[in-house]
Amino acid sequence: MKYLSIFMYATVSFLLVISAWQLVIFFGDYPEALLPSPFMVFQGIISLIQDGTLFEHVRVSLFRFFVGYLSAVVVAIALGLILGRTTRVWKVIDPIVQVLRPVAPVAWAPFIVLWFGIGNMPAIVIIFIAAFFPVLLSTVSAVKKIDKTYLKLAQNLEIGKSSLLLKIIFPAAFPYIANGLHIAVGTAWIFLVAGEMIGAQSGLGYLIVDSRNALDLDLVLAGIFFIGILGLLLDKSIGLFEKWVGKQWGVQGS
Amino acid sequence: MKYLSIFMYATVSFLLVISAWQLVIFFGDYPEALLPSPFMVFQGIISLIQDGTLFEHVRVSLFRFFVGYLSAVVVAIALGLILGRTTRVWKVIDPIVQVLRPVAPVAWAPFIVLWFGIGNMPAIVIIFIAAFFPVLLSTVSAVKKIDKTYLKLAQNLEIGKSSLLLKIIFPAAFPYIANGLHIAVGTAWIFLVAGEMIGAQSGLGYLIVDSRNALDLDLVLAGIFFIGILGLLLDKSIGLFEKWVGKQWGVQGS
Amino acid sequence: GRPTPGENDVIRIGHLPITHAAPLYFTKEYEEELLNGAEIELVRFSSWIELMDALNAGRIDGASVLFELAMKAKERGIGISAVALGHREGNAIVASHDVDEVADLKGETVAIPHTLSAHNLLLDEMLQREGMAYEDVNVVEMPPPEMPAALSEGRISSYIVAEPFGALGVTLEAGHVLYQSNEFCPDSCLCCALVLRDDFMEEAPELADQFVEAYLEAGVRADQQTEESLAAHSNYLNVTDEALELSLGWITYEDLSIGEEEYEHLRQRLIEMQLSDQPPTYEEFIDQSYFEEER
Amino acid sequence: MGSISEQKILVELRNVDKEFMKQGLPEKVLSGINFDVKEGEFVSILGKSGCGKSTLLNLIGGFDQPTRGELHFDGMPVTKPTRRAIMLFQFYALLPWRSVLKNVEIALEPEGLSKEESRERAMKYIKLVGLEDSLHQFPSQLSGGMQQRVAIARALSIQPELILMDEPFAALDTFTRYYLQDELLRIKEQEGTNIILVTHDIDEAVYLSDRVFIMDANPGTIRKRIPIQLPKPRDRSHSDFQYYRKWILDEFNFGQKLDGLEFNI
Amino acid sequence: MGSISEQKILVELRNVDKEFMKQGLPEKVLSGINFDVKEGEFVSILGKSGCGKSTLLNLIGGFDQPTRGELHFDGMPVTKPTRRAIMLFQFYALLPWRSVLKNVEIALEPEGLSKEESRERAMKYIKLVGLEDSLHQFPSQLSGGMQQRVAIARALSIQPELILMDEPFAALDTFTRYYLQDELLRIKEQEGTNIILVTHDIDEAVYLSDRVFIMDANPGTIRKRIPIQLPKPRDRSHSDFQYYRKWILDEFNFGQKLDGLEFNI
Ligand SMILES: Nc1ncnc2c1ncn2[C@@H]1O[C@H](COP(=O)(O)OP(=O)(O)OP(=O)(O)O)[C@@H](O)[C@H]1O
Ligand SMILES: Nc1ncnc2c1ncn2[C@@H]1O[C@H](COP(=O)(O)OP(=O)(O)OP(=O)(O)O)[C@@H](O)[C@H]1O
Ligand SMILES: [Mg+2]
Ligand SMILES: [Mg+2]
Asked: What keywords appear on the UniProt entry (chains D, E) (predicted)?
């Protein structure tokens, strides 16, 4: 029932977009090379699927994404848990993070090539950078925001340092960290296109850039379509993951 | 006292970065053109300040940023307040938003150029897109999350529709909307570089891209430095703005 | 698309900051002298993609662009014509110090800026000469500014790209010149072209005439290796004098006319390499009327 | 008692049932509720947590509809909330972004008064609850007790016929609670508003009400109606007071033994 | 009383002051607090909201240090929290991501018991509070009363000499509160733990304690120590009970008139 209704609404919005698009083409009178029609894009999608390249691009992109994202998450959470508890060290690190964070990962491209070369690495590094800061900042602030009662309790029970970090601080901070993970999935995925512009020879970002190079705007739109759909799926999966952890930890609904 | 200590910590972190950087250069033995030294970057910054171009780049970038960001905020909040209250319409719009959101604004470049030309507009449009989705989504979810008691109260008092929206729903949702505004400042600013790659002839993003094309990596780093500092200032200002609104509305601390 | 021709007499021409666009710089530098009253606005882009977007959408009146890329746009139905070359020669194959001959590149990575470029064709030509296949090397597309760094760090073994990046690689001692383009295809390695939008030429034919004439004259001036000309170059290209001089030594701007034969060669190469199905013919795409008037 | 029974009936519930869907199945939360509240009466509904007190109050206020049965307010079926019956919420439902004065004034907006009239009316009721010195303070700057007094002023300013109170003093400390209970009685005397109060505090019910309805849970029913025949003001430590207190306590202890309270807490 | 005064002194406060910085200036929250708690005694500290009750309890527990004065626990100065004196928090401080059993087991971790011993000890105290059927449930699946019972089991499992309780039943409804108060007395009898309880509920203080300390605010001082000389179990509606109740009520009403309660709420 619930899925059926979601599906119905999605269909309505899909039809809405297609008609709006067709109307723009109809009234705007653009050359096809500059604004492909829905049908052309559909054909493009089909051809990508048929010759198997789509599958390959998706596979490569997801691989890069997961390597970059997961390593960023692990490093950022570990660092964040420690930095959140060591106020003075964080005060020194904080200005650095604050200045680095607003810089687009793309701006680092020359240095990324210098240190990490070309191919998979630049995309992975850019996704790493894009995911790292949101997760780090949300972990640090999650640790700082922990209900003081938990800390008092731990003091009172004379719980050891490592137990405190793993069994109390981490789970207590988790809901807020999860929020950071959620935001980071979005931002990191957005930077996939940028990351795959630096010397990559495959992946959805490359597909878009390469099709743009070849003036195949229908394939650009097909690429955009798949990036959007996969981004949506990634977002939903991390939502499910959050729920699953929540269930393990007895948080209901929230 | 408080500002003094912030300043001291910032100085320590600054020195830390500079020394780490110098060490990398020392041990890595990279050609200067590929990894400029702190001193070269400092010289670059000075020369940018002296010939006045820096000021111009900053002015243009901030102008584009504010036009894009503020218009996105106004449109997204207005739409969000309405969509948050009309569940069925939102169910149709939601899938569209969810699929569009993970697509990098850069991927739209061919269409942005087609409709908006080159110069200021692509940067403004890209910043608009980057800011629009976080604000819209946070507004909609803020409206949906409003404490039901406020709505019951409004029903009970028989308060009119427009009063309800402006005097109850908007202020009640504001803290959460403000959170969206905060996130959006960061994301939007990150996309400045991308936006100023499309035919712009000035701005900090242009400075970075153009210096990169000229292999003037010292100026690239100078540009990164200013993007970082300005991003930090923007972030702090929106923080102050939030606090100011909070004060007007009697929210203390939080 | 609807063109937005520059207000009044402003001609908007797109380019990338490379030595290959020098005639444009000189047109701008001597604008008052050459254009009597008209104005040219040089719009600098950071990559070919963005430049093509603007050209296709009619946001600029013309551009100095990779010939092959312009042909692709024409094939796609964009109303543009090539009126002159950007330059001749000036495409060096730069290789790392441990590559002494082409055979050393087997299995190595070679960078080019774009598949639709003279550099790609050049690579293929070079490999063919040495009896190697295109597939013997690992070709990657990457932004030109990243190439010297990638070469220096051993991420790639060679790159072929527009100037001044070749010269920059050499002056940074990241690599050495393996070959110059003229060693493979003398006079027929068409690289960059000046293309104008047809609607611009139709709406302001006199302005277009004036501009192309100025452009050709500017080419002659750009070719002179005088102090003055060097100074003009460095007004537009922010590179060391050393790299600039090296780079200019490899290029000529004197004869910018597009010969039918050399164009046909390029067409065939594109088809051979399966980069294009039906590239436009000489008649469709090349407008040499300016040269005819002159002669 | 005599005089009240002759007065007109303000609220009337006839066989009211309320079901909520729980995991797809309907669950009966209220079952066969029958009672009248007469004009001038102060009625308390007393019951354990989760027995359906808030649900019942929501029905009376028109915030929700009964699954079965009839519900009348002043002779008319209740279909939606109106300004004639104002709910006072447990956590006050003040708008934290508006000052005390503006919190009261927003309630007067739908009456279309002039600015001066509206200000005057608001001031009158703010004075009534003794908050004229905190006019321009925000709710967060007030103690819990003061916040609830603002909510009372807001409710009164509308001059409703009925005020519905959902555990209004539960979040306050004992001393503040005692004080506000006295205030409430004084104001009710002065304004003559009818009040239905929901609470789980036996003392509060006995101290304030003319009648106490005792509720049972699973499903919520009215087990007993106890008229409190004590003169007001009442003395909390007087033996008559203790008599009612003990009576009600025993009622619950009796229930406790039957249901096995241990498993309900 | 006789037997208690001969017993050893467990907690001893001598001229304890506590100041907090408020907008850069020190504000005295507690002033000249002096009292002893003897072994076996159940002491309640009764006071209005904000009078410094929690601050006082934090000092005794070692969570904070007095600005002036001395504080001894079992003859030793208190410098930091220890497992010998366990605090029971108002909102239970259960770890919501751990089941009932694991919430108790984590408290036993520092004792270095084997897995079986630890499980056995946890089970013993979970049974004591009657929650053996909810072993694997999460706190969010329990009612407030059950949650507080888990917290009590956790505190007891450590077998501390002293339990400090900060308004432990304030968030529960009256009936649950009554029930848990009885439970608490039963458990205290069985385990022999000393308890210091902070509350603003007069009935609770009278019902549970051997002695009630009444606090004044601004700055917090102990105004009165009232020994409750009633046999346990006590009857809430007995006249002796009411006698103490009225006495304490009058104490506060007396204070009220002096301070002008209206401006303190
Ligand atoms: N909207 C709803 N949907 C489903 N079940 C509900 C809803 N509202 C209340 N219930 C259920 O109805 C029962 C009674 O709830 P209600 O809030 O009326 O109790 P209460 O007596 O006010 O309790 P408390 O003293 O804790 O406020 C509870 O079991 C609750 O879970
Ligand atoms: N960490 C702190 N910093 C500054 N002031 C504090 C701090 N803790 C408490 N106070 C102040 O000390 C006073 C007493 O607070 P405390 O929490 O001890 O009161 P309480 O009697 O427990 O009140 P309640 O019944 O509301 O819990 C209050 O005025 C409070 O604002
Ligand atoms: Mg309720
Ligand atoms: Mg307290």
From this structure: ATP-binding, Nucleotide-binding, Translocase, Transport
Smallest CA-to-CA distance from D170 within D206, D134, D197, D188 is with: D197
Its pTM stands at 0.87
Per-residue pLDDT for chain A (254 aa), expressed as one digit of tens each? 677 888 888 889 899 999 998 998 888 878 777 888 899 999 999 999 998 889 999 999 999 999 999 999 999 999 999 999 998 899 999 889 988 988 888 888 888 888 887 788 889 999 999 999 999 999 999 999 899 999 999 999 999 989 999 999 999 999 889 888 988 998 899 888 888 877 778 899 889 888 888 888 889 999 999 999 999 999 889 989 888 888 887 665 43
Q: Is residue E248 part of a domain?
A: yes
Residue B231 in contact with partner chain A when CB distance is under 8 A: yes
- Integer Cα distance of B87 and B95 in angstroms: 13
Asked whether residue D119 is assigned to any structural domain, the reply reads no
The total of other beta-carbon atoms located within 10 Å of residue C281's CB is 13
Domain presence at residue D106 = no
Q: How far is the CA of A113 from the centre of ligand 3 (A)?
A: 63
Using a 10 angstrom Cβ sphere, with 0-12 exposed, 13-18 middle and 19 or more buried, the burial of residue E185 is middle
Residues with CB under 5 A from ligand 4 (ion): E 54
Q: Which long-range contacts (CB under 8 A, 24 or more apart) does E78-82 make?
A: E80/A155, E81/A152, E81/A155, E81/A156, E81/A158, E82/A156, E82/A158
- Whether A and D touch, i.e. at least 3 CB pairs below 8 A, reads as no
What residue owns the CA closest to ligand 1's atom 14?
A: D52
Answer whether E touches C (≥3 Cβ pairs < 8 Å). Answer: no
Please count the structural domains in chain D.
1
Describe the strand order of the beta sheet including D162-166 as a list of residue ranges. D85-88, D162-166, D194-199, D42-46, D211-216, D221-227
Q: D166 C-alpha to center of ligand 3: Å?
A: 7
What CATH number matches the domain at A55-248, 3.40.630.10, 3.40.50.620, 3.40.50.1860, 1.10.3720.10? Answer: 1.10.3720.10
**Residues in D touching E48 (Cβ below 8 Å):** 173, 175-176
Nearest Cα to Cα of residue D135 among A51, E105, D125: D125
Instruction: Judge whether E63 lies within some domain.
Output: yes
CATH of the domain at D171: 3.40.50.300
CB–CB of D137/D94 below 8 Å? no
Which residue in the set D146, D173, D265 is minimally distant from E176, CB to CB?
A: D265
Task: Supply the angle between the helices C241-249 and C227-236 in degrees, to the nearest 10.
Answer: 110
C-alpha D55 – ligand 1 centre gap (Å): 6
If you average pLDDT over residues C40-55, what whole number do you get? 86
Domain boundaries, chain B: 55-248
Which chain A positions have a beta carbon within 8 Å of E80's beta carbon? 155
